[in-house]
Amino acid sequence: MSDVRRVGAAKLLRVHLTQNLSFSQHIDAVVTVCNQRLYLLAQLKRQGLDLSALDSVFNVIIANKILYALPVYYGYLTQGHKEMLQRIFKRANRRGFAVREYDLEALAENAQYDLFHNSCSTDHCLNHLYTANRKPAGSMQLRHRGHNFALPTIHLEFNKRHSSLVYCLMCVTCLF
Prior knowledge:
mainly alpha
């Protein structure tokens, strides 16, 4: 396989991924596209489109662009990248393109919860990665976690930082 070459960054299912697992290139691309689309919304508003229609268009062309694969990359974002994405929501609300103000932190938390909740289903493609926690007879009852899965034991620091990314990338592939 002499014709295969190593690259520093790749785009996998519309998510830019670099060799050091940084999503800065992805965030820069998302922010650029969203700013262009905010200009489009400004033109639509100038043409007389009402608020409910602007909100619908905003959700379709901007909010979904940010929310796509959010559980995959949100935990790896710097505070600056999070602020860049939040500014898009604030700008849209200030210009009257969105009915409500969006909170990126809450959106990310909901997306991660929904992903986990959906993957707990036995017919989900990630369900086989979970190990059911079998409690021995006579064991102590600890606080309720919301699931009955055993948490994996990770011994290497590299795996602690990057194992969730591998599972989340698998989740993105399951969306299609």
